[in-house]
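Section: Multi-chain targets

For targets with more than one molecule, the full set of components is provided together so that the structure can be written out for the assembly as a whole rather than chain by chain. Components appear in the order listed by the source. The example entry contains two components.
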Amino acid sequence: MAIQGAEQTILRDPALFYWILFPISIVMILTGILRHYATVLMNTPPKSPSTLAESRERLALLRGVNLRNNACSVLDRESFAMRKNYMVTGFRNGAFLKDPSNRGQPPANPMTDPAGMEAMMGMLKGNMMMMIPQTLIMSWINAFFSGFVILKLPFPLTIRFKSMLQSGVMTRDLDVQWVSSLSWYFLNLMGLQSVFGFILGSDNAANQMAQQMGMANPAAMVNPLQPGQDPDKLYLNEAENLEVMEHFCILDGVEERILQNFAPVGI
Amino acid sequence: MPGPVADIHEISGSDLISALHLAQQAPAILQESRSGVTSSNSSETADYYARLEQLLLACLRTGDDQSAHTCLNRLNLRFGPSNERIMGLRGLYEEATAKDQLALEKCLQEYDNTLSQSPVNVPILKRRVALLRSLNRPSDAISGLIQLLDAIPTDAEAWCELADLYQSQGLGPQAIFSLEEALLIAPNSWNIHSRLGELLYICASDGDASQLLGRSVQHFSRSIELCDDYLRGFYGLTLASTRMLDNDYAGISGQLPKKTLERLKAFALLKLGEIVESRSIDDQHWASSRSEMIAAKELLNRQNNIQA
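Its structure, encoded as tokens over all components, is:
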């Protein structure tokens, strides 16, 4: 065990500092930036619907949700009942579907559906963008710098941090303050978020252009349907939700409320 | 960019005066931004293009077609002619600079062409409806808008436009329905609440008057609850409650008791007086709503005369 109170000293070549610590940090930052721009570059904007019917299929669901959420602040009993009936029958008999004739058939295999394929490609690209550079850098560090102790933290830590700070160095007695090269890599991996935020602006700054180009096109912005999901099932679900809704309206008694809240006493 | 363009976002659609102010600065803004665009970071340029768009609209409204063309060209340069929004703006520009009826018809044809290629081009769909309306073909505009709303039922702007179109054709109930749909999308917008109140008030001349007036009072009250110095809300509340009192609708079948209505009216008048008084002081700031102020003053005078 390390002797309590006594200062451990390890004679380190100061060149370690320049040839390991700095390269790792710089490489980490550069790959982070590179990854960011690669993501931006490969990012495909969400596909906008190509026909009016497709757009309706997507947005009818949102309309149902809107009705469910906001009816209480707008509608009186009569118009609510009317709308509820309309939406529920529409959902039930598939009036909002892209092609009602296909109703009830199992959804197309996402592998054969080009739209679904595209979405999966997007996910895959995102994951690859994380995985590949990390694997490369970690093997690079393992190959060149494994086992180096490169830095001493200026403050004491408890023994629990040992596994975090000294991975790759199998020395039981080494004080927790010492940080190994592999651990420095992990620390960078987790801790550079704010540095990237500083360099690249806030997280979504680079995506803003893409957002702006899609602006003013509400149909393209939202797609509540995931690829491979059967809209009919979602519709039936929503119809059920609407069905059980009780009507109440916050407009009832609003007159008394404003008199009480805003009017001066004595009116 | 500091200085004159800082308040660019405050420009509202119907405010001609501030649009004029902005358009007058157009040459300066366009000059100044020529040098500084490329260097600034992405969020700033996003802002810059939003401003260019505003400027384009303001210039078109005030007749500065040349600056408008410059704006359009810059937007075009950045986003490309196939961007839907740019297509919409270009259409708007063509419409605004069209010399005669024939040129407008040509615009319409162009829109139809574009739509046959990409049927869900929302800006163009909307431009087409607006153009039909300005060509004095309201029924075509309505059917176009219904088609649009069938595909995109979550567009509050379109529902409001539909309500306006219906009202211009004297179809009150349909207009009310459309505004209710718009409110379902944006339930906390006090201006739409008060607009709905106005529609109900107007429709109350025929049909089930007491019911409609009651709902009108409710919507005006709601708009006041959401924004407690909304001039139009108070104005409408005064009118609606006065009419209910005059026609003795108070107390019948689920309506408010007479006492509450009287209190509502007194409250609305009091607030109207306060708002008019406070806004008369800094007249310039409220210049855009001057017509509303005049109407409110007139209403107050009338009420005072009745009491005197």
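The longest helix of chain B spans residues 258-281.
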